[in-house]
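Morning F.,

Quick status update on the modeling queue. The single chain you submitted on Monday has been processed. Sequence for confirmation:
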Amino acid sequence: MTKPSRKKNTPKKSPSKRSNAERLNLDELTRAVVKLFAANPTHTWNYKQVSKQLNITAQPLRLTISRILEVLAMDDTLTRVKPGTYRYNLSGALLFGTFERRSNGRNAVISDEDGKSIFIAERNAMHALNGDRVQARLFAKRQGGDLEGEVINIIERSKHTFVGRLEFKKDWAIFVTEDRTLSTDILIPLSELHGAQQDSKVEVAITDWPSSDKIPTGRVLKVLGKAGDNDTEMRAILTEYNIDYDYPQAAIDEAERLSGEITQEQLAQREDFREVPTLTIDPADAKDFDDALSYRDLGDGRHEVGVHIADVSYFVTEGSKIDEEAYARSTSVYLVDRTIPMLPEVLCNNLCSLRPNEDKYAYSCILTLDNAAHVQQYRICRTVIRSDQRMTYEEAQDVIEGRSDTQQAIIQPLFELSQQLRKRRFDDGAIKFQSQEVRFTLDPKGRPTGVEEVVDNESHHLIEEFMLLANRTVAEDIGQVRAKGKKAKNFVYRVHAQPSEEKLMALASFAGKFGYKVNLSGENRQVSRSFNKLLDSVQGKREENLIETLAIRSMTRAEYSPDNIGHYGLSFAFYTHFTSPIRRYPDLMVHRLLTRYYAGGRSVTKGKLEEQCQHCSEQEQIATQAERDSVKYKQVEYMKARMGQVFDGVISGVAEWGLYVELKGSHCEGLIPIRKLEDDYFEYDEKNYRLRGRRTGKRYNLGDPITVRVARADLEQRQLDFDLV
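Structure tokens below.
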């Protein structure tokens, strides 16, 4: 048996000990004291002993140490063992959290315990990177000051690769990035270039960053191409968000082995809709058709509408290579010039695509509606369908407006029913927000030659209303409890919370300055109706852009959850995503849950469902950011060819550093730096969303029309600067 060591337990002296300690300022001295106690948490010291450990001999500073000890004890950083003697307080002084590197330099650790934000100065960050799991130590809190601390341990590094370009020196390459989550350049040894050349756009990883070095060393992981090339820049955006633009070969091979043959076994288990008039309506450039509509007039004022969705779950089984990759991606990503699909191409563009004149497996919601578009009955089942025609939105609109009679027997009654569904939805309190999308015209090299706003019309509304109805019906079918004492089975819902009372009150208060009244009392439906009344009232008014912008910003973000809280924006008590399993993994989850529950299966575990929903919600936001960045890049590229030209726009954002302006039609957004507003000294009025001239009183308000000239187009930063005209 080994005897315990009798080695004397001597205190560790502070690593910050130095001969010029007498010149330390109060903050540095306080941090040195905290570090000393934290490194020796079992020792007790008085001010004389602490002074000795810190090599402080000057009596004035020794007395300052005494006062620091008293303050640290009051803040619970230290525990007073007896008068004048202290020990490190282990409870509450250390915390675990996530490091956030912020573009304004106010780095922070977000505490795991209570979500509080602790400011971390760069000198105390220990080279922590954005998203790292860290352990931090709190400093003594000054009266009226923010919580401040330092990183003392990096527990786990997050995914840390960066996208940028290389600048070559004699013996090194320097990696330069506009990524604001990295505060430094990276040195790349010539042996770690992996074929990268001058002006290559690359993905880089940090390989070494000693605490004593200001700049890390790294290596090139992937060469994306020459900076400025369209393919390179689109790949760079995907790489920034960790979206793999290449599909794993194992999943592709697995997909190639699948067959879309309609078997007798499957026919026996499905309803056969191949003889029922059916069509798809999609954008002109669509390649995957994951939804189709069928229609039959049942007589006596009754209509059968079939919402048929590609049965992806038949082909993609849980745990397969395809399924693993689809879950990791969770969504297809739509950049300006390309689609990064969630599924291998053979599935999304062939086996699962409801192409015309081909027999396809589908999951269907069959609805019987009366003339007022009320659902009389429904069933959700697996089917075999055969689309008669693939139509574009433009072709369907021609039928609606009487310019074409193609498939009129289907489109016209569907249109009339959809209009009634739409009217009732808004009457019930759905919010009337208009999406603002743009479409680019690209030349063969991917350069934008034109940009226009995408405007929804009645053909879009036709498809939208029936997809919403199917999603709502499926959610109600599983979520509604129809028997006393029973409990709904766990399910995937698409939820949208009501805006916070604080944001609604701020909007109501601001709208009140223009004479509008927003009712914030009563049920959600009453509040949303008042919301819609406000949006209708501002149409065509000078304040329209301002009020609409603030109304959109007051909304929360929709997400996936097993906890059903309803969908505020749609004014639905039950809502899910059932209609797009080719491009959204939650829809595939919904199909699998339906199959399980209709076969009598038990409810799935809620914990696993929560984890999956959170992952899908996060991936959705990542995809949205990547899509926005691709649009932003193309907008800047488009305006770069129009330097010096003048455009009309609207003030879309106000900040202390300037005005953001969105151009009409193209929706390109750029900044007028506040230094360019030379006729006065302008101050930021955050409460009223405006800049105000101190001398002249001139105001620039959010939503104001404005005319600008294109002054700078920086593709590297995806940033436009405007001059005021």
